[in-house]
Amino acid sequence: WTITRYEVDLDHKIGIGFFSDVYKGTWRDQTVAIKLLAETTSRTLFVREAGLWKMLSHPNIVPLLGASSASSDPPWFFVSPYYKHGNLVKFLKGLPSLSQELVLRCMREIAAGMAYLHQSDVLHGDLKGTNVLVDDNL
Length: 138
Fold this sequence. Notes:
Low-confidence stretches: none
Largest sheet: 5 strands, antiparallel
CATH class: Mainly Alpha
Shape: globular
Structural class: alpha+beta
Number of domains: 1
């Protein structure tokens, strides 16, 4: 489950956040997303996020494939699947038109993921279209 920085290759930046940047990269010959935390992120915050994310398992929550070791030096990182469609905003803007069926499906799946988080006593804290990923099966 622990991934060393020598096992991942960063390709290019695909997302920018307040506390982290996300890169498209490679791990074990598969394309992945690598969330690289800011150098100033505390070890406590990293360990807490890793512990929470590791315990989550739901079809509408991005799975955690692994993370760097808390005993290593920062910056710490998380590895998750890479989704070619990107975030919901990018995906929807790329469509020629929106069907009611697709909008309702997206809303149902977001609600199901959020309900699971809340049942697990996890507060997302930053739900927005750019933080909702569209999996490759859509």
